[in-house]
Predict the structure.
Amino acid sequence: MKRSIEKLQNFFKLEAKRGYDNKAVMGGLARMLDSWMAEARADPLPENLIQSVADRLQSYDSLSPNSRKEVLYGLWRRIQREVDGQGPIGEDEPPEESRPAMETRKPEPVGPTPRPEVESRPQEQEPTPTSRPAPATEESPAALNADVTVLPRVGSRSAKILGRLGIKTLGDMLYHFPRRYDDYSQLKPINRLQHGEEITVIGTVRSAHRRTLHKGRASLTEVVISDGSGALRVTWFNQPWIAQRLRAGTQIVLSGKVDQYLGRLTINNPVWEPLEQEHLHTNRIVPVYPLTAKITQLWMRNSMHKVVSYWAAKVHDPLPKSVLESADVIDLPTALQQVHFPDTQEQLKAARHRLAFDEIFLLQLGVFQQKRAWQERSASRFEVGTEWLNAQLIRLPFTLTDAQQRSLSDVRRDLASGHPMNRLLQGDVGSGKTVVAAMAIAIVTHSGTQAAMMAPTSILAEQHYRNLVRMLTDGKNTLMPGEIRLLVGATPEAEKSEIRKKLASGAIKVVIGTHALIEEPVEFADLGLAIIDEQHRFGVRQRAALRSKGDNPHLLVTTATPIPRSLALTVYGDLDLSVIDEMPPGRQAVETHVLFPTERERAYKLIHHQVEAGRQVFIIYPLVEESEKSEEKAAVEEQTRLQKTIFPTYKLGLLHGRLKPSEKETVMTRFRDGEYDILVSTSVVEVGLDIPNATVMLIEGAHRFGLAQLHQFRGRVGRGAEKAYCLLIPKNADAVENERLQAMAETNDGFVLAERDLEQRGAGDFLGTRQSGYSELRMASLTDVKLIEKARRQAQALFERDPDLTQPEHQQLVDSMKRFWSDGEGDIS
């Protein structure tokens, strides 16, 4: 492929991916024309082709997104004709069946009976939460499971294309929601049109002409319509069939964006329909659906309308009438109709609210069921007297904060309840979660029962091991040093064998380790407490594997990532929650600054000053190695540059995810022991390093990270008595990014940052591998606390009345629950 064509293809692909917003090139596509034309002539390309590209892209900025799409497709089709061997621009050319043939025929209804051959087909696989079909009606239980090929003019080829969108059945279509809406419901007379507005016009065709462009390789259809108040020139590129259909005297409705050409208003490539037809694409709030290659919006809207108009009204509502009235939500058939083809903005809002309510309501019901399943189990009771516990606390070199005292009381109460503890302990880095975990271990082992703690990295497991040995082996009624052991991948095989034997015999009371605890053939004599540190690093099955080592052991999971309230109510709603929301006395806030890229020398001076004073420094990069796809700085190349030119007299270590586990451990250990002055790293340093001597955290490419992750990085410094600094350097001085990053300079409160991060980036950073499906809710937002609390109240009230959903009016709800949770995994195993 010629280099100029390849470059153009990349621009077009990116523009298509961005929805034709004219930002594939900074400043717009026209900005790249000078350099591209020179490159195209050097290749060489035909001069008339070069001029055609230039002519079309010069006016690209003034076009609507639909018109821009037509322009790029037209250009690419011509390039494919004139230059051999080129591929599609990211979306294949719309097939013949996808063209707007709807202007000449009315939509055909979809009857209730699928084709005979469909009835003998096997049932579709249970849907996932990302494509939840509506429950089938009692009158036609199999109809919504019918293949999409029951639709008129949808054959196996079209069905395969729809399958790329997760659409296999009529039910899938009902739940394939629009991604946005264009409001063309405001009719305007032609003489009141204004440049730039999106409108709908009704008028009569006065003339229609088609002319060829560029020696017959393209065409332009020009139509003049009038409505009595004025006349409007309308144009379509490369759609010659329109001139044949729009004869003089035809009344039409058209919608689009008003542009300007030679001082006169015009509309380029509008959507249109004959006046007598039902208006699906004009004169209304028009749905815009997610698409895939070879499907157009016109074709998709027509197909969706056939399904929605017939089947939405027949869907049985799974919510009982009492919930509908109490929650003040509209019925499901109405919601499905209005979310696809809304009559007004108010009805669209009500429809989206109902469908979002359903998702959170089903989510909450599942959470309540998981929590009840856990609470119904029995577990060993571990009770200690207040005097004994106070004796353990007095031995500590510090006094617990009020938040730590509250959390410890929660844990103590759980351990004495006779039911397995299932508690999430959350608190900022350095807030003192380990002390609470240590006291839980002390309570359990005081009765002779065993405890295990699983950490995500060997170095973090080693830190916990050292801390627990210090806290639990110093004084009366405490453990002997040999009763606490460390089991990680690097543990010598002979020592592993010894640890396994002593765990099985009960001689070892506490083991701290990594995945080795569940990957090795480890057996416990009597495991009473399982602690999982940085819980979001582990999957459901890994946590279940550790719990399975005992008979319903108590479970305590911890996280240094503050959980926003909305997530605590939903995703983690099955866990009891303890929050350590205050820092120990004397812990200094890390001074944080957002620097412009041009201020990097200031950061280097601060690093020089701190290293000369005997301190250590982290420098974080978003990438391991530089690549052609990104201009971001990368750890490997930058470590070499920094060592040679910026800090030649200091020792710099390098840490990234491509190193072997043993190599990572070596680097982190050498940094911890002071052999490196500066550690250059990627995000693998986010969790696990406790370096009290580190006072500077410099983060390059800070815009690439979420606030929660940046807060985790910042928590790696300021753990000693010296003042600490966190410096954030984004790639450029973009105001929006720096405004987001400025939140880091404004507060050290992880909960405030977590709320902002959830609003800006969604729930992915908080979910880890806890539950599939949560981050893919179709309508509901996990930032909508008001909706979440409403749905939770309704779910709790229904759950208290009928926890097993056995009442007749809840049978449809049972089916919906099965569909919603079919792809998820709870923490009950």
Notes: Residues 85-142, 769-773 have pLDDT under 50 and may be disordered.
